[in-house]
Amino acid sequence: MATKLVLLVIASTFATTFAQREPTIGVMTALKELQPRYREIQDFVINRLTEARLNSSQVVYNFHNDIIGSKDEYVRGAIAEEQTVLTILDGQQPDVDRTCLGFVRNSVDMNENLVGVSYTNCINTVDDRLGGIVQKFYATIQEDESQYTGTGLFGVFRGENIFYAPENIVEKLNEKLEQLRDNPTYIANELFDMVVEFEAELGEVKEVYEGCLEVGTQLLLTTLNIARTQIVQVCQGQLEPETPTDNPAEQPVFEMKAFFAAVLLVAVAHAVVGQRPESVAVIQKLNEIQPRYKGIQDYVINTISEYRLSSSAKIADFHKSMILVKGSFVGTSITQEEELLSQVNRQAPSVDQQCLSFIRQSADVNMNLAGVSYTNCIITASDLMKRTVEDFYGRLDITETGNLGIGLFEEFRGENVFFGPDRIVAKLNARMNSLEDLPTYIASELLDAVTGFSNTLENIRVDYISCMTASEQLLKTTLNTAQMQLEVVCGGQRLPNEPPTPPSVE
Fold this sequence. Notes:
By secondary structure, this protein is mostly helical.
């Protein structure tokens, strides 16, 4: 009966002691419950952002089409207007001053070149504004993405102590779990609004571009009208063929002139290509190269999305491993404390009770100190992980923004679609050749990046284990010292250690 009573007291003592640390074990339970939600939400956000990126790619593609269409319309219109005046010059009678007509022809050509400068200025403005708008859009998306990389999981330990006030940590974890219980579906609506706003901004750029083209074209038309006036007033020529006479002998000549005029009208319709074929070739080459931009951008977006999801898996594995390590050390620490308290609580009544109380307080204080140390370890690891994830995502962002298709009109910078258009065509051909194949090398580069990312996380985990080991060894030393104090100072005895198996926190 006495033996049973002793065993009952011992079991009660252990139950009380373990109950004292139950909130600490609750921290690990809540942490393990929360961790999978980080992965699920990160994957959800990555997929929604990928959709937004692909939608923005389509918006850029449509914008390129609109800009190229406008440029095509105005370039062909300018060539047609020029050809109309050139047709008038070519149709002048032989007695009209050829030198004077040559001056007018040179003036027409020069003004066509000047409108080419104007058109280049317009397209340069488009290129600059497009780059800024796209970069801003992607920066906003990347900022949203960085909020869901799972780097804040261990931030709940900042300023807290898993042994001294674990209920504070549990409360924070429960709050986070409640926040993350549902997928942030509102992101889809926010991203839709962002894409709509993005499209609207590009629409404004298109309107400004067309206004710019219109101003340049009106100046050209003014100069061409002046050229018409110069043909008549300065060169003494005519804008229309001479009026036919009623003389039958002259009728065949008129009929011949009428036929020639009709031929000229048809010629004007085809002169857009004939007069300046290289200028028209620029537009044709733009139409040829533009779809490649979208194809490559979509490939890059999808490829990077795969590696974002891969990094999400790496982060999830890292979290699981860290929680396992922390649980193991916390469990070991609790066991060591329980072994000491078991010795204290089972001492004979004759042992100095105040001394035993000091031992208990010493154990509690040293557990709290170990909690401080454990917090420092996890926060250091958390901060390193956050920087690692930010660096990795920064690398992905650089790769992505480098393939946004925003340099399509760059080839016009410093060039003139009417004066030396062959140089633009050559640049576009070179760009076309560089875009012939999908940039599959990106996958290899990203694989290396993910491997490096994974290795860095592993190094953080190893350093965390080292930090926790040093802290646990220090705790073990203080508890062993307390055991010696129990025997030497309090006059107690070392009793056989037979504690019950502590609850698992792994």
